[in-house]
Each structure stands twice: as structure tokens, then as C-alpha cells.
Design brief:
The complex is a heterodimer of chains A (77) and B (259). Chain A is mainly α. Chain A contains three helices and no strands. Chain A has a domain of 49 residues: Arc Repressor Mutant, subunit A, CATH 1.10.10.140. Chain B has two domains: 79 residues, no CATH class; 142 residues, Cupredoxins -  blue copper proteins (Immunoglobulin-like), CATH 2.60.40.420. The chains are: A mainly alpha (77), B alpha+beta (259). At the A-B interface, helix 1, helix 2 and helix 3 of A face strand 1, strand 5, strand 8 and helix 4 of B.
Chain lengths: 77, 259
């Protein structure tokens, strides 16, 4: 693995501001909605996972995963 | 300071860190900082113009209307020409300052191209953790590290006091970077003067800044929010894309190997 591919979540025109908190949250929800709609194996959801992992701090993702497991996630899944 | 001391002082001053008695800005590393420096010079032109003009009027008035020279003051209450002039000119000058200022402000805000990579800079009391998550294939963080300021009593020879950190942020040069700034406890900030960036790190909020470092080098910054006793430093090291690739894969391989 010599050359690393530089690729990340693109700029999203729904979130043009400095504050990107909702960008991260939306991408996280989009991924889980996509999985819910298309099943675990669907490859088209993988990009949303990459986006939210790029944008969200690891700590946030861990907390949301825990909340989903306990059924107390605050977002519309 | 001895002669050798002076010599040492001049040869050892790091190029992209604050210097003792520094008055101007640090050398620009990003187009944004270049814009800031240029705007500063633009505004300074008007500043000096106004300063000279106002001082001249002031000194002239003191000289000509001194009570000994001119015991009976003139009672002029009207002067249409001068009133028009002193209304028009002060309203044009701010316009000349405002136009480049707004142009710079909005160009800094705007993300023109898609960033090539994202780095998350998370402030803690008192260190910073950085996450490079573009290469992750699961929610487990694979490339995360903490960056602590080197304490006052043990910098190595040539290191700057309270500026150096143990793990520098390595970024590729000439690449559009997105930096997501946030905090895990109290408000911190992420500021690197030579890149023209100063961004508050607020817990629960992700602030995005985009920079593109134009030359390879080591850039020093410090927390710019009163966050507590050990106000942490920031060191950004820009390397070429090729070197960046090998740095990242060196960090990734041992860790993914363990997992």
C-alpha cells in the first residue's frame, strides 16, 4: 500500500455552513436507513458509511451505535 | 546576549512559528493567509493616509489658532464645500476597505472544491486527538492519535518552548483539506497562524474549515481559547503527497495487522 487514495465525503450543498454537525448526523441516519431499506449486504450503502466515518468523531458514532442497540436513538431511522 | 547567543537566535528561529518580538504576520502557507496579509496591507495604506491627513489638520489648527497668535477666534458656522467633501470622502474610504474585506471573508467561507481528505481535530483538556477516518472500513477507529505539548522542562535542543508536540499532524501539501474541529470537554480552539486559520472547538458542534497548504514545512499554532492550565499546542507538518501516503500506510499497517 504505497500510494494512498485521497478521498473523503464530498461537500454537501445541504450543509454549506461552517457548522457541519448535522451533516455528520444526516449521513449516519442515511446509512442506517439505507441498510434498513436494502438489507445488510447492499453495497450502495457503503458510501454513506464512509461519509459519516469521515465526518463524525469516533466518540459520537460509538454513542449512537449504543443508543441504537438500546432503542433510544433520537433520530428518525 | 552574547555574540554566539545572537547567532544562535538568528539561525535557529523556526520559520513558521511565532518569534520573539515579532510584529508582522507569519509567512503565509495557504492562499487564505496570503489574502489576509494582502488585505492587511491594503487597509494599512488607507490607515496611513488618514493618519497623515488628520495629524496635519490637527497640528495646523493648533498652530494657527493658538490663543497667543489669534486671540479672537473666527466664527465660521458654514462652509458648504468643505461639508460636502468631509461627508463624501469618509464614506468612500470605508467602501474601498469593505470591498476587498468582504471578498476575502466570503472566499474563506466557501468550499469551492470537494476536499480530498478530512481530519478531525478534537480538543481535550489538555491535548488534542486527531482522527483520520477516510480509510476506515468499520466503526473502529484505525488511525487516531493524541498530540501532547512537550512540557516546559524537557524540550530537546532546537525545539520551541511550549510549541512543540509529541505527535504532529501530518497532512499532504497542495491538497484541499477539510478539518473538522470539535471538543470533548470545554471550549478549545484550533489555530495555525501561517495557514490563516483560527477555529473554535465547541463541544457538541463540528466546525469545518478548509485549507490547502501550499508548501511543505512545519507550522506551529496554539489553542486560542482560554481552556485551562495546559493550553495545548498544535503542530501541523505538511509533507508531499507521496511522503504522506507512506506515512499513513506505515501508521495503518501495524494497526490493521493487529486487529
Amino acid at each position: 500500500m504505497g500510494e494512498i487514495e485521497l478521498k473523503t465525503a464530498p461537500a454537501d450543498f445541504r450543509f454549506p455552513t461552517t457548522n457541519q454537525s448535522r451533516h455528520c448526523f444526516t449521513r449516519y441516519i442515511e446509512f442506517h436507513r439505507c441498510v434498513a431499506a436494502k438489507g445488510d449486504e447492499a453495497t450502495e450503502c457503503e458510501k454513506f458509511a464512509k461519509y459519516y466515518r469521515s465526518l463524525c468523531p469516533g466518540e459520537w458514532v460509538d454513542r449512537w451505535n449504543e443508543q441504537r442497540e438500546n432503542g433510544i436513538f433520537p433520530g428518525p431511522l | 546576549m552574547s555574540f554566539t547567543g545572537i547567532f544562535h537566535f538568528f539561525t535557529n528561529s523556526p520559520c513558521d512559528a511565532a518569534e520573539p518580538w515579532q510584529l508582522g504576520s507569519q509567512d503565509a502557507a495557504t492562499p487564505m493567509m496570503q489574502g489576509i496579509i494582502d488585505l492587511h496591507h491594503d487597509i494599512f495604506f488607507f490607515l496611513i493616509l488618514i493618519l497623515v491627513f488628520v495629524s496635519r489638520i490637527l497640528v495646523r489648527a493648533l498652530w494657527h489658532f493658538h490663543s497667543k497668535k489669534n486671540p479672537i477666534p473666527q466664527r465660521i458656522v458654514h462652509g458648504t464645500t468643505i461639508e460636502i467633501l468631509r461627508t463624501i470622502f469618509p464614506s468612500i474610504i470605508p467602501m474601498f476597505i469593505a470591498i476587498p474585506s468582504f471578498a476575502l471573508l466570503y472566499s474563506m467561507d466557501e468550499v469551492v472544491v470537494d476536499p480530498a481528505m478530512t481530519i478531525k481535530a478534537i480538543g481535550h483538556q489538555w491535548y488534542r486527538s486527531y482522527e483520520y477516518s477516510d480509510y476506515n472500513s468499520s466503526d473502529e477507529q484505525s488511525l487516531t492519535f493524541d498530540s501532547y505539548t512537550i512540557p516546559e522542562d524537557d524540550p530537546e535542543l532546537g525545539q520551541s518552548r511550549l510549541l512543540e508536540v509529541d505527535n504532529r499532524v501530518v497532512v499532504p501539501a497542495k491538497t484541499h483539506l477539510r478539518i473538522i474541529v470539535t471538543s470533548a470537554d470545554v471550549p478549545h480552539s484550533w489555530a495555525v497562524p501561517s495557514s490563516g486559520v483560527k477555529c473554535d472547538a465547541v463541544p457538541g458542534r463540528l466546525n469545518q474549515i478548509s485549507i490547502s497548504v501550499q508548501r511543505e514545512g512545519v507550522y506551529y499554532g496554539q489553542c486560542s481559547e482560554i481552556c485551562g492550565t495546559n493550553h495545548a499546542s498544535i503542530v501541523v507538518e505538511a509533507v508531499s503527497r507521496k511522503d504522506y501516503g507512506s506515512r499513513v500506510s506505515n501508521q495503518l499497517i501495524p494497526q490493521t495487522g493487529e486487529a
